Amino acid sequence: MPMPAIQKFDSRDQRTALGASTVAFTVCFAAWTIFAIIGIRIREELGLTETEFGLLVGTPILMGSLIRVLLGIWTDRYGGRVVFVATMLAAAAATFILTYAHTYPQMLLAALGVGIAGGSFAVGVAYVSRWFPPERQGVALGIFGAGNVGSAVTKLLAPLVLVAWGWQAVAEIWAAALVVMAVIFWFTTKDDPVLVERRRTGVKPQSAWLELEPLKNIQVWRFSLYYFFVFGAFVALALWLPQYLVGVYGLDIRTAGVIAACFSIPASLFRAYGGHLSDVYGARRVLYWTFLVSVIATFILAYPPADYAVRTVAGPITFHIEMGLVGFTVTVFILGFFMALGKAAVYKHIPVYYPNHVGAVGGLVGMIGGLGGFVLPILFGVLLDLTGLWTSCFMALFLLVSVALLWMHFAIRQMERGVTGKALEELPPFPEMQGMPQPEKVISADETVLTDWRPEDPSFWATKGRRIARRNLWLSIPALLLSFAIWQVWSVVVAKLPLVGFTFTTDQLFWLAALPGISGATFRIFYSFMVPIFGGRLWTTLTTWSLIIPALGIGYAVQHPDTPYIVFLLLALLCGFGGGNFASSMSNISFFFPRSEKGNALALNAGLGNLGVSVVQFVVPLVITAGIFGWFGGDPVMTKGPAGEAPLWLQNAGFFFVPFIAISAFASWFGMNDIASAKASFAEQAVIFQRRHNWIMCWLYTGTFGSFIGYSAGFPLLTKTLFPDIHALQFAFLGPLVGALSRSATGWLADRYGGARVTFWVFVLMMVGAGGVLWFIATKDQPGAFWGFFISFLVLFFATGVGNASTFQMIPAIMGREMIRLMPDAAPEARRLQAEKESAAITGFTSAIAAFGAFFIPMGYGLSIKFTGGAEAALWAFLIFYVSCLVLTWVAYTRKGGLLHDIERGKRNTAGKAAAAE
């Protein structure tokens, strides 16, 4: 029967149903994949072959898959609440009975009962979908599907219980958790609206045969094959990875479980992302990206360790190729992320096309996907026994996803061939959807997208705009602070690597410190244009999540002195993700504020974000001296110090930031907004390369921010070189701190007096600071020379902070003025929108160019010392550069007749006076 009007039901009941179902599914999924951990110990006790082990871990998956159709039908007939509770209680009983099994056949029989927990997916899909209208079902089912994270829960917690009390205790505790969850679910949820309406009207449920009627459509079965990879392969890898990590990398079961969770967690939690992306961009595009990235990832993972010998005129050159643990962890994280998107994209269609048969159809699709979780682990075991290659499992997945991608692509092209115009628009996303009942098209009101945004309207700004803009700003700031922290973390880590056993040369250490600057600046070029393309909310969330990759990578890499140098180079480059985020963050915030408040808003965002440089230089030396994560964070290395030996947890330099990154990413997703009018393609934004003021501002911002980030990276090394008796690291954080605070605290100056006027005096002050540094270097043997040198640098840092704020305030003022010349016939609102888009792009692009200062200033010191024996030549070059910036600011903007002269002094331009005279 059709769903009753959803507005009749309390939204609190909806949230309760979704929340309780998601938690219940998480507990069920944890029990369903329990053999991924305890199976390893059982295999040792019973002496199982790889094939027998694959059958053992796959048996619950088989049962959980086959039972989904039946449970789905029962849910459609009797309601999800009672069926969900019954499913959990049955699974709990089987899981507890497992502890009494002692032979392999007994284990397989008990595993069939444990598999009942996997059937809960079909129950939950039908139950949850009945609480939400079609336009909200994609996101609701995406959130529910994130219960797949139960696999990660098992991987993280089960090894602890297993090591402490044995595998039987794991089964007992997981069974108890199912019982407790069943009780909580029963007393906190209500019967779904369809069941309540059916009881009220006395309508009898359809017969089981009518429930199965949609399954006669062969296209439903064809569509299920997509799910075989995105879900089935996920389940298979969730089961297989712990023993893969033990066998390939020699890890203990606890560490293997933690790293395997790096696959399971993104493959589960990001399912909600997939639902949103499918709603916004279309399921077809999401599934294309899923298959394309999966093809690349599985190909990389499938490559076996190999030794090569190349014959040259100088003799054979041999080298070894093998994926290290860090590279493996990062790659499976990416694979899991896109699998999560694909799962949501596939399942989005079922409640839309079959609203009255969600249980049956959803059960079938889930069954086919679940069968992948049964078949593939067995296949992995067989391939390992036959080939002896651990990577053979990824070879199989590479072939599977390649076939899926090609089949989908050619099927879509076949469907679209010869169809044009309106008929083409009415085609379903996939050919598998042809013949299904057409869904009712409902326009979803997405509160996260601001379709009406008028910051220059005083009334709109006061009543609504300011509150939204400030919320986005205060969510952007911590994300940007973490980005700067990850970007600059190598400035601290490289100094400690020799203490924990690494034998890298000084030149190698220098490159580790310099590479984040290069990659961060390069990423900024691309990030500059991403916000108008993807939206600030989505892009901020994704780029914040990306910081976890280098953070975790550093944490694992520094624990093993035999980690190849190439791995550290790769991690240093990946830290550039943090540097790149600045461009998109500033571009995003610039859209939210009116021109009169842009300077201060951008100053707060950038200034407080820049504090990440000081945070990393102040916090990391503290956290690496304590075991703040216990056994989970790894063992310390004993290092020699002035007070004797002391433990050092260098891995905390990366691990410390991981929980904060996760919190910030979730806050960005649930709290930030997109602005509909800010959408623009790359081609539309690329017009900035034709604007001469874009290149002028690149030059000026390099003088301010390029100096800030370059001095931050090079000050400790320069101080240590010039004043070897001074412990420079204890003062290193003060310079970036002064620069960051001055930026955040002085944005109002540019808003009040004009960005160009402030920038002019900034370069005067920077010339004074650079001159002071040169003076005290020349007299460095005199008493108090260091303090004069240090204060001069603080002056430089202070001036760069003020200049960073003032230059960014100039950009929207410049483009607002330029649009009058470039678009003389356009309406004021059209000029404002174009100025906003170009200002955002220029803001990001100038920050990209200026970020290269993080590399060139330390490099300038090194070259100056190498060729002249001192740093003076580099500082003279910087001083001359500041003179050029001063002249350029005056000529282009502040002189009488300059572009901003009249605006910043409150005078009317010549045209305005002539109009007034008339």
From TrEMBL:
| Major facilitator superfamily (MFS) profile domain location | 16-416
Give one GO molecular function term: nitrite transmembrane transporter activity
Q: Which GO terms describe its biological process?
A: nitrate assimilation
Q: Which keywords are on file for this protein? A: Cell inner membrane, Cell membrane, Membrane, Nitrate assimilation, Plasmid, Transmembrane, Transmembrane helix, Transport
Q: Which PROSITE patterns match?
A: MFS
Tell me the membrane topology, using the record's own terms: Multi-pass membrane protein
Family per record: Belongs to the major facilitator superfamily. Nitrate/nitrite porter (TC 2.A.1.8) family.
The protein's name is: MFS transporter
Recorded source organism is: Rhizobium jaguaris
